[in-house]
Amino acid sequence: MLEAQAHQQLKALLRLEGETRWPHHLTLSRLVARSLRRGDQTLVRLAAGSDPSWLLGLLVPLALHEGPVALLVSPALRQRLLQVEWPRLETVGLRLPCWEGPRAPASARLWLLQPDELVQAWRDGALGERQLLVPEGERFEAGLRQALGVVIETAHWELLRRSLPGTAASLLELHERLSRRLLARPCGPLQQLPIAADEEAPLRQLLSLLGPLPDPWPLWLASSGDGWTSWACINPTLLQWQWHRQPLEPLAQLPGLLHRRGLVLVGPAAELPAPGHGLAPQVELSLSDPPLLDPLPLFAPQGQALPNAPHYPAHLLDQCRRLVLGQAGLTVVLLDDEGLRLSLTSGLAAEFGSRVGHQLTAPDSNGVICCSWGWWLEHQQRLPLPCQSPCRARRSPAATGLGPAGARGAGTLGGPAPAAARLIRPPYPVCRRPQHSSMGEAKRRAEQGLPPRPKTSKPAAAPSRPKDTSPRIAPWLPLTRNQGERFVQITTRGAWIGIGALVIFWVTVRFIGPAAGWWTLADG
Q: Contacts by 156-163 with C-beta closer than 8 Å and gap 24+?
């Protein structure tokens, strides 16, 4: 059976590498092999921030399976598969031939697809009976939504006018009317504005009566109904705007894509799409780490403001300022609202200077990173472990899925309590790493059979010279900006001293020496 073969091959590979960083390799390989053999749908929920080595459990049964499979990958995951995972499989004699590009022959075993290529292959009927593997289930719907989206730019309006010269005046009037409405509104820091259905109705009625339309107008005309949303990205400098239109539920716009098709969907628990529109998994399993026995230390501010309150940004800044003040380690602030995040970053930078950065991958040892949840998931492997993580989350993954840093503590500010903090009563906590242990804490740990908390060493005495916390000139160069400025000042002063010495030497040789009779000039 495929399950047994995958089990044996994966055990041999893990034994050869001699390291197991993820404890569920064999379970995942049996689930994937069973789904590939039976052609059913399997939903595997992982803990957020799981070690990427879990891909072996997905690829080993895929290399042993003989049927046609389509693997949906992003460019970053595709690069990892080709450069890291494929060579690991070859060490045990497993070869996985794959086909890339928008088209593949029916005999190709594995077809690597991006979301836009998957949509085009489904529309062309090229998928056939292929099973679908999605190792990035948290990006499945977002990728399909972006692939189905339509973007109308200024050049597309000009192309439409040239294609339909008889209606050029009407199209120009509609474009100018819509532009005046959009450019007259305040667009906020995101430079985006919603477009209501009644605002686009005149253009939709006009285009529905005309003949063939140039791309992408037929797609825009077909994307009608309540299942779609429209917005404009404004460029106030050039007084131009882009028209974006995307579906709210992309699977509803692709009927039949998942109907009676084998599917393996792997991703974080709360980020996977809900069943429906052909997604009806026969097997659902959660492969997550065991729950923490020691509750996370949380900080709950008094008089917590609601997120929609007008004074909430000031309250958020004040609470984050309190947490960052005096913190010797790295602080990560998770905030998905881009406008609020940029405002918070500016406020913290005005208070703490260059140690605050927005989505910065080279922070100081006591730096503060303000980032979104998606950015943190993508870059957390390259960042040091944070000592505290103030969060404002709408969903629990932003509070509990800090990956390796999750063991240090996590919490939310302005959102529901995370799963790791269900015993904490306040609904709006913010985590802070504990600095010392109390007698009550020691007694509680003894009753639960836990080892005593290690004592933290006293901080070293502060040096007489203030610490240089300015950012580096380049991440690979151990030279800060303050040190660079001091170097320029020293070299400039040395240059002026050299110039002055050269002038004195020339005056002495030219005038003082001959006048005193010390020497005679050759050109005299």
A: 156/214, 156/216, 156/217, 159/214, 160/213, 160/214, 160/217, 163/212, 163/213, 163/214
